[in-house]
Amino acid sequence: MSWYVLQVMTGREREVCEALRRKGVRARAPAERMEIRRRGQWQTEERLLLPGYVFVGVEYSAALFHVVSPVPGVIRWLGLEHGEPQALETQDALRWRLYSTETLEPSRVLFLEDGSWHVLDGPLAAFAGEVTRMEKRQRRAWVLTKLGGSTQRIRFGVIPVEGVP
Which tens digit of pLDDT belongs to each residue from 124-165? Predict the structure, then answer.
């Protein structure tokens, strides 16, 4: 089985996943628990990690293309080459944790006194070399990475940990 990426209408990711599952297609829209500050209080909410994208785990065939494409909300397959979508490499499927159906927990990040930081664990650890922005106060990290042949900016939740090396 290989994993492919579908671009879908933003806000309809879960509907698309359910529709694909009813058709016997393994579909996943990875979600993460994230700390959100509202009215001065930190609250934990579940947010989609990649709004507008759904991963499908299948053995690709032309017939499957015609089963998936007409699902309401599906815009297109990403990474088309010569009319066929290109599968994610195994390393990328592992980075996105596609083999797990669990909601991802925020990554713990150690912030040092000199202003540097180190990712201790969580989904951000697989993308640590691609972090473009880290905001301790907002508990967010932004990563610039390739997804289906195009560059995407993805937001991760972090839990700050204070410390000295």
Answer: 999 988 999 999 989 999 999 888 777 889 999 999 987 655
State which CATH number among 1.10.287.1770, 3.30.70.940, 1.10.10.10, 3.40.50.20 fits the domain covering 2-162. 3.30.70.940
For residue 160, the Cα-to-chain-centroid distance in whole angstroms is 21
> Is the CB of residue 108 less than 8 Å from the CB of residue 121?
yes
Q: What's the Cα-to-Cα distance from 85 to each of 89, 105, 124, rounded to whole Å? A: 12, 30, 27
CB 54 within 8 A of CB 28: yes
86 CA to centre of own chain? 18
pTM here is 0.85
